[in-house]
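Checklist before submission:
- one chain only
- standard amino acids only
- sequence pasted in full

Submission:
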Amino acid sequence: MEGAANPPNTSRTPGAVAASRPVVHVTAPSRLHFGLLAFGRREGRQNGGVGVMVDHAAVELRICASEKLETSGPLADRATVFANRWAEFCSMDAEPPCRIEILSAAAEHVGLGVGTQLGLSVAAGLNAFFHLSTSSPAELAISVGRGLRSAVGTYGFAQGGLIVDRGKLPTERIAPMDVCLPMPPEWRFVLIRPRDGSGLWGEDEQDAFDRLPPVPREVTAELIDEIRQHMVPAAASAQFDMFSDSVYRYGRVAGMCFAAVQDGPYNGGRLSELVEIVRSLGVAGVGQSSWGPTLFAVLPDEIEAGKFVDRMAERVPRDEVDVYAAAANDGGASVEVSRPDPG
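Returned file contents:
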């Protein structure tokens, strides 16, 4: 679908529009990405990979009636861009008349997939606000220009859980999803993020990919085997130790594909040091999300996660590194529609 079959009717008087439009509230989870399967080859599927959604809000926004497009809050400028892309996709001849308030947003470019979650939140919220039919995850992503490399966050926005992205062929705009399954509800992901760093993005990210050698086919095969033979079965059967070991192995192999830029499987000496600290505390399942600097550690339950957070606080300065626990998100984003307060 290249555009909406029936674009939203925005020709009524402002008073009538305000009276008929709902208030839409969207909350999207954060995305952890464990690493890509392939890049740099001229044929076959590119990118792909595996990741999980966690109940740490990436974006929370509200859409309500307005005579013109207005945005406010953190990342307001990006929300404006996404709203205008959505309007163009829907064949609207003007900006969508509404107010988009970003109530909260996690930090950008730290490995939590905030840009994609913001774009999809804007698209899903505008669909609900203008009474349009629900779009597929791929259509949502295309409407705001997201999901061009990884589709983990795209499918995770809609469904949550553990997502395996098959990778994209040159003829595909969004990679197909290979697996989506819920995570054991008692497991916890502890996020570890140095406050003074950020991952690569934009032109710097593209320059990095241009400098990296292609992922050898045998490495891609090894990563796919790790997912299919170990990681997914472990998550499906709640085998915590098996999952933890698999996540660590996968992250190191996938990370070494970026060694020419990162100087190792993790993005710099500080992250490598933090991984070693996590492992020294007896936690096997640790990895880097996307380009970092966010790391994640897998713990078996809330109590153990709390103990681990306390032990990390003894090893790393609280004012330099944020450490907090989150459950897996197995429902995706929430889109709530209500009527405006007549008062």
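Reviewer check: The domain at 21-336 is CATH 3.30.230.120 (Ribosomal Protein S5; domain 2).
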